[in-house]
Design brief:
Blueprint (H helix, E strand, L loop, with lengths): L11 E6 L3 E7 L9 E4 L3 E4 L24 H14 L4 E4 L2 E5 L10 H7 L11 H15 L3 E7 L5 H16 L6 H17 E2 L7 E2 L2 E8 L5 E9 L17 H8 L33 H14 L4 H18 L4 E4 L2 E3 L6 H9 L3 H7 L2 E5 L4 E5 L2 H31 L7 E9 L9 H32 L12 H8 L4 H10 L5 H12 L5 E2 L7 E5 L4 E5 L3 H6 L4 H8 L4 H6 L42 H17 L2 E8 L12 H11 L1 H10 L3 E4 H8 L13 H12 L6 E3 L3 E4 L3 H160 L1 H78 L4 H104 L12 H16 L11 H33 L5 H35 E2 L4 E2 L3 H34 L3 H8 L12 H56 L3 H46 L6 H17 L15 E2 L5 H10 L3 H5 L5 H16 L2 H21 L4 H20 L12 H5 L8 H36 L14 H12 L8 H17 L4 H24 L7 H20 L6 H5 L1 H11 L7 H7 L5 H10 L12 H11 L45 E2 L1
Parallel strand pairs: 6-20, 7-16, 7-20
Antiparallel strand pairs: 1-2, 2-3, 3-4, 5-6, 8-9, 10-11, 10-16, 12-13, 14-15, 17-18, 18-19, 21-23, 22-23, 24-25, 26-27
Length: about 1800
Amino acid sequence: MSLAELYTKEARVWIPDPELVWRGAILKEDYTGQKKLAIEYDEEGESDLPPLRNPEILIGENDLTSLSYLHEPAVLYNLQVRFCDRNDIYTYCGIVLVAINPYESLPIYDNDTIQAYSGQDMATMDPHIFAVAEEAFKRMSRFEENQSIIVSGESGAGKTVSAKYAMRYFATVCGAEGETEVEKRVLASNPVMEAIGNAKTTRNDNSSRFGKYIEIGFSKGDSIIGANMRTYLLEKSRVVFQASEERNYHIFYQLCAVCDTPQYQFLKLNHPSVFYYTNQGEDPVIDGVDDAEDFVSTVDAFSLLGINEARQREIFRIISGILHMGNVVFQEEDDESCILPKTDKHLPIMAEMFGIDQEQIRNWLCKRKIVTVNETLSKPLNITQAYNSRDALAKSIYSRLFNWIVYELNKSLSTGIKVQKFIGVLDIYGFETFEINSFEQFCINYANEKLQQQFCLHVFKLEQEEYVKEQIEWSFIDFYDNQPCIDLIEGKLGLLDLLDEECRMPKGSDKNWCQKLYDKHSQKKHFEKPRMSQTAFIILHFADNVQYQIDGFLEKNRDEVLEEHVNILKASQYELVAELFQEPKAAEPKGPTKRPPAGRGGVIRSAKESSSRSAGSKNRQTVGSQFRDSLNKLMETLFSTTPHYVRCIKPNDFKMSFTFEPKRAIQQLRACGVLETIRISAAGYPSRWTYPEFFQRYRVLAHSKEIQRKNMRKTCENIITKLIEDRDKYQFGKTKIFFRAGQVAYLEKLRSDRLKYCGILIQKRIRGWLAKTRYQKIRRTALLVQTYARGYLARKKALYLRRTHAAIVIQSKWRSYFCRQRYLKALKSVVFIQAYARALFGRQKFNQIRAERKAIVLQKAIRGWLERKRYKTVIHGITRLQAHVRRRAAKKLFKQLKIEARSVEHIKKVAKGLENKIIELQQKLDEKAKENTLLREDQVNVNELKNEVNKLHVVEKNAKLSHGKISDLEELVKKLRAELEKEKAARETTYAVCFAGFSLGVFFITYFQIIETLQVEKLWLKEELEKANQRVKEQEQRQEVIVQKKLEEAKRNMMREFDSERAHHQKLVKDYGRLQQRLENLQGEMATLSPTAIGHQRTASGISNISLESECSTVTERSDVTGVPMADIGLVSRLQNRVKELERNNAQLRREQDRREGGEAGGSGDPERDIYETIKLQELEMEGSKMKEELNLLRKAIADSTDFEGTGLKGGAPAKEFMDQFEAMADELARRREECIQLRTLLASRSRTTDALASENYGGDPNLVNEDGELEMAYRTQKDLNKLLENELQRVQKCSEVKEKELRIQLDELKKDSNRQQKLISQNLTMTPEARIEATMQHEITRLTSENLDLRDVIERQTEQIKKLKKALKIYAKRLKSTEASDVQAELEREMAADENVPAVKHVQQREYTGMFEYRKEDEPLLVRNLIIDLKPRLAAQQLPGLPAYILFMSIRHTDYLNDDEKVRTLLTGTINSIKKVVKKRQDDVETITMWLANTCRLLHNLKQYSGEKTFQNDNSQKQNEHCLRNFDLSEYRQILSDLAVWIYQGLLKLMESQIQPMIVGAVLEHEAIAGLSGSKPTGLRGRQLSNSREFDDKQKDFSLDSLMKALDNFIRVLDVHAVDPELVKQVFRQLFYFICSNALNNLLLRKDMCHWSKGMQMRYNLSHLEQWLRDHKLQETPCQDALDPIIQASQLLQARKTEADVESICEMCSRLSTSQIIKILNLYTPVNEFEERVPISFIRKIQEHLSSRQDTTQSLLMDTKFFYAVTFPFNPSNLGLESIVAPPEWGLGFLKRL
């Protein structure tokens, strides 16, 4: 179908209009080739063939390239509809974002909007600057490509704001919720640059008067690591001149606004109207802007960017000096000269602000220097030249200051980290054309020509790439190429070359340059000569033809400043002023980030830089050449990046909000290249559909036989070839169909006609069905009326019969009732009279008794009161008498003290007392000095004494050995004598021997107990020694820390002194440079004043001497640094020696202990040796007690004489006491030796042989002594007994080794307890007396409780031992009559084996558990690791829900039972920290986080339930109340656990939200459960780019509603498995459904393609599944349902009728939507089909009026996706008894002991 066939009657077209640019009209006749057509506006007329209008459904599209007809009127109208009718300021035009300035603040830039666009595709969201920023960020992070955002437009169009919001988006997205320091600095650069580079113009109150390109650097992790800024074309002329109703740069007015502040009075400023440089515009105030507040923001930004207060003051001085320079007024002497009057008050202030010599600047402002070959001349300036040189100097100073600030900002924004990739934001002037165009407009338009060329090449590249990718036939698209225009400007012998050449000519002028242009370029197609002017030229730019006036071109290109002025400023006393005018020391370095400012070794990175070199320098670069070079670098950067374009449009010149002027808009659209984009798109195939989308939209035009479901391309080919005959109008690509302009409109017309026909057919069928239904309804109604009438008559007769029967029954009942009531009344009266009489008598008797009782009470009270009154009177008198006596004594003493205080003798006595105290202190200091020496001597003595003690021990052992042998022999004699006396009573003798053996076994038990006691004492002594060693080590550590601190402090003092010296030296060097510059200036003046001077004048040689003297004087005046006292090194060395000695002693003691233990373990098996050991141990028991007392005294003496804190010795008395004790011990040892000798003598005298015994008792016959072998039999029996006892001894020895290990473990626990006690003691020292007493009592309670448990263990062990001994006694009783000891031994062994092998019988019914788990202190880390860190959710799910919490609480109960506050503190702290660690480590595991949320809540509930508070005990059983905590109040830990539960709850929700977030939009908005209900519309270039980008995104997933439902099912399953509290489950899903609602609604509010009737039905259907899910899980009555109301109401709003009659019902229906949300949805509502109607503007306004009375809590458009409902944890007590809980063996908790 040809395009002409579309011009039919009633077709909508566009007609050119002089006022509206384009005006809509309707054709009144078909086009058949005639030259004119009849059209209709408001009245009929005729016109040529006009452009066609787009279908109604395409009006207001968010992408201009999706329009069927792409031409200028369609673009203009679409922008106007979106801007004026829908208040949409952003519109896509292919790859360009068109932004129209609304001139009012809109709520579309908050953080919620940023989060809504983050991670989304551009084509799915409404146009926004955030969408462009997100696209750039996504391409940078996904493809590792550098990006650029090019923002252009004329002044007042909103370029700066758009660039600012783009940077804010990057800072917010990369900085997550909170901005980092780098992002803050990037954003802080905006207030600074606006203050120094923005100004008010007639078009814009905050116009940027410079261009800038900001590169934001990113790391590999896509976080901002720095930024860099380039500036272009600062408008320096604004510093000295402003047009009417305009202002200078904001910083001048901000400083004037704070001139009255004391902090800035040194600037000596006033109101802006006082200064010439700020009062030319005559409008110093901007409505709605507070310059003082803006200045505060500027200062804060300076500080944040690292510019300190001193530098800020220097900056403000320079700006103030510029203002005062503008007020300097010259007086004309004659036509050739002028002067500065002495009365000028601004010149001294200016000189003060700049730190320069007043007379020098006064002289050289009126003169200039001319240097010839042989002499230097001074030429006066006329008044015009003087003003021009003053203004040039002001512009140069401000320009250099601007460049310096930009350099400092770049330095602050650079972090030193390597930039991996960047996104550049270019904010530059748009195309400009005014009535008078000068050098500035020439440079701006030149830059726009370069940018337009880059834009066209990029658009062309994208179009051709699309065609090649789809493999379709295409021809080269012709587009406007502006390369000839660019060559005209920058080419060889172009305008810039000729301008630079003319600037280098000695007598170059603007006219000569213009004449050269006429001669060189008059034949060029882009250059024209004006007809009526010889001082202008015309360039044919891509946007318009611009005529430039040549006046000032050469001067602005040179940008000269007098050398004399520069030299004066170089000699300024202020560092910054001199630095601004320093010459570069080296060539400009390569690279974009290492270009320093003037005065710092190079030139600042700014496109337009002014130089302060001499006017005669021929190699200086001009402004034009600088700008050309910087622009070429910019283009290189842009070509190396992927560009994104933002074109800002100014809708009107009056700054009126949402007012659209078509003329102004179309000028800017032509200038910014938007229409060029449209033209390129229209030249090819602008309309493109994928095959599935085309089939879904136009399948109504196909017959069933043409449809092939498996081959969608073939189906589309069948449809299109039948509908469009011309093959050139479309192309089939690999995945898309390409249409020429207008073909989609034709297809839409065919589709609309087909749908109309189908609609009529459906209406016919429906109307017939309605008529038939109406007839059937009337017939059924008639039959129903008849049935009801007949039934009514029958019911009426039945009612009459029932009433007659009822009357008879009522009469009979009434009569019986009347008789019965009369009888009851009489009976009641009789009873009442009797009761009254009896009550009367009772009351009388009661009153009598009560009166007597009250009388007795009154008497008792009165008598008691009289006695108390008498007693109080006596006591009061005695008290007064005592007070009188004490008062008299106090007065007497007070008078005496007053007399003594006034006396001179008292004063002398006090002074004498003070002197004595001073002398005592000095003596104490001397004594302290000797203490270290005494300490060493005492230590040596102690070591010697220890050696002597060891020797004495050896001697004592030998003595005890001898004494043991004597005792052994005596015992043997006694046994033999007893055997001889009872030789004939064998049975009795055997009995005696057995009994003696039993006594010996008891003795061995006692022996081992003594051994244990001695070992405990030995370990205790070792512990005391270790404590002493520990205190010495701590003292050494403290000394080392003190020495280290002093050394560091001395080092810091030296560094500070070094820094001050270096700063002073640098300052001297700079002062030297400035003084040298002043000297040169003075020499220049001398040379000028003395014209006879010829040649170069040498400088004075005394400068260096002056500098040296100044430096020397400064050094001598510098205050010396006070010395730092050094640590006492001798004390440290002595302490180290002492520690070494103690360590040697400790090692020696350990060796001795090992030797003794080895000796005990390696005992021989000789029975005699065993008897000897037994006797020896008896003696050791006696000696041990004495040695214990002696060692206590010795330890006490050493403790008193030795100060372990390192302060020295206290005196010699303890040492003397120690020596006395040592002598006494030596005497005691000698006495023991003598006793041993006496015992040996006695033993020798009493020892008798067998012969002697026979001679005394058996008549001298020795054979009778051993008659019948009795002695041999007794010996064998004794030998067997000894073997039996030896075996028993070995068994007991093994038991002792086991006990020794246990004692060592207990010793370790005692050490830890000792450390804890020391900590408690140190804490007690800082407590108040009351707190100390309370702590002591608490400690005693803990100690007694621990001892009680230990005693219980001892009792249990002793009970078991008694049982064993009783069994042994039974065995002996059975074998009393037996003579064989082996039988006794065998029986004993069998009994013992039976005791060991046979398991003990457990009486279950008698075992009662207390609901506690006991664990040792060292097992606490293992408990935390196994129960928390290593516990898997799978294992926890197999046990009782909340079991870890129960186990932890039962362990806490045991610590409460022990009253061990340290233990419970470490357990709770370790538990809380471990839970945090686990949750952080497994933050992506829903089951783990859920498990610990449930257990944390259960532990919290247990702490409440068993806290003992009555409020939590209502549901407890008696047993549970007995298990309550008794000693600890853990309410603070309950709060900590509550906070921990909140933290875990929020982490769980964030994890759940992150998992379902990708599913929400696809499940709620995009999921089409009802197939074919929604139909797509033509998409623009953004939609096409979306489909392309998805091909490269492997992670792109299409989530359906089932995915979301499965995720919710998984969440509730996990919560149920771990038995989370039901109330908490409701809160979790309330928050989740709020998150689903907020994300879906926010996405809906930002997507126009979702706002239509069919999509509303799809959404409502999808939401009904979520509601059904709530009902299935019994959550429909919870707030979860309310959380979905906003999105449900939004879907209902899309489906509702939108007529004026429905206004009230819609407002009532949308109660949960805010006013802005309702209006936004109505504005976004776009029909998909012709049968849907757009929402009228009048209807939207009525909705607004009706909702104006509603009190919305928020005016925000988007819902807050970060909002969290306040979480609560309702108390949920457990009915489970703690005594029934058992720790699972597979959890590795075997060390827990269940009590």
